[in-house]
Amino acid sequence: MTDEKLLKYFKNACTEGERQEVESWLQANDHNAQYYLDFVQARHPAAEPEYDKEKVKARLLDEVQYAMHSNTQSGTDFVRRIVDQNIQWLKAAAAILVILIGGMGGYVWFGGTLSDHSEIGYREFTVPAGKIDSLMLGDGTKVTLNAGTTLKYPEQFIGGSRKVYLVGEAYFDVAHNKAKPFKVQAGALTTTVLGTAFNVTAYREDQQVSVAVTEGKVRVADSGTQRDQPQELTLTPNQSLAYDKQTKRVAKQEGVVSDFISWKEGILIFNEEPLPETVRKLERWYDVNISIPSSGLAGCIIHGKHKGESLDNVLKTISFATGISYEFTEQGVAITGGRCQ
């Protein structure tokens, strides 16, 4: 394999035939894969020297282990998504991971060795729309999950940390273990604690991911982007943060965080939220489909607090406050028009 062809492959400038040739060569043996990593790193010495490659390896391995045990996303797609970094070495390692995951069924390559991680089993706990449920993990951590939430966690916490993966919203009351930090991966954010209580909201369809702390202290870090180093913030009681998925920016806030966890008590809160965001909450809370016409209603701002009310009563309140109209249909609820007051 020529260096010229490897360089074209790394720059994504090769033909389909050349790509297949290089990937077959990489998959042939560990020596070829190691050569490719060394080749790329030697030609890109400008990568930040303070960046801890071993930590990158550990994180990437952790993510890939999760992907291989996930029923919702292929390992290949997962790796391609998480390698949005400005570190050339990571690009090279990820390229090999993509090939090996796709071609070797559960083996992950690092540093010239193959390790079988198939013995690590994951369980998945899903709460459907319209429900709230709780779960006790093996370490004594209690997790309360909001409607439409999935938590994936290992059958046993092995190694130096306790890591789980969240899609949706959950409140964690973490069992203290100083020697083994508890980590929650929610999209691009990782929240790390020793023993505390906090809420994480990370629905796939929402624009923001939020973390709010009621007890103790947590450290929250994102995965970084091509333009930025990873951001890291520490939160203490009555502090929260919001992470914007589009801008990759984090905003930290001070103040009582009771609104973040009101759902645990069956209280539905709309805090100056746009109508589309309110609709998503209602769909999850009441397990119903709600359609919005393509009019100017997206700009309606909703505010209110509801406990133990029917969907019809909540919609009546919103209708009175905003001027919108709605009707129940065979498919669910249709917001039929009106205008924001």
Structure description:
The chain is of the alpha+beta class. It folds into three domains: 114 residues, no CATH class; 138 residues, Jelly Rolls, CATH 2.60.120; 72 residues, Phage tail protein beta-alpha-beta fold, CATH 3.55.50. 29% of the residues lie in helices and 33% in strands. The chain contains eight helices and 20 strands. Strand 14 and strand 15 form a beta hairpin.
Rg from C-alpha positions?
A: 23 Å
Order of helices and strands: HHHHHHEEEEEEEEEEEEEEEEHEEHEE
Count of domain modules: 3
Provide the CATH topology of the largest domain.
Jelly Rolls
Percent of residues in β-strands: 25-35%
So how many helices? 8
Mean pLDDT: 76
The biggest beta sheet reads: 13 strands, mixed
Structural class: alpha+beta
Low-confidence stretches: 45-57, 64-91, 98-118
Cα end-to-end separation:
68 Å
- What gross morphology would you assign? globular
Q: Which CATH class of the largest domain is shown?
A: Mainly Beta
List the helices and strands and how they pair.
Blueprint: H1 3-10, H2 16-28, H3 30-43, H4 53-68, H5 75-82, H6 88-104, E1 107-110, E2 113-116, E3 122-127, E4 133-136, E5 142-145, E6 149-154, E7 162-173, E8 182-186, E9 189-193, E10 197-202, E11 208-215, E12 218-222, E13 232-235, E14 239-244, E15 250-254, E16 267-274, H7 275-286, E17 290-291, E18 301-307, H8 311-322, E19 324-329, E20 332-338
Parallel strand pairs: 7-8, 17-20
Antiparallel strand pairs: 1-2, 3-6, 4-5, 5-7, 6-7, 7-10, 8-9, 9-12, 10-11, 11-14, 12-13, 14-15, 16-18, 19-20
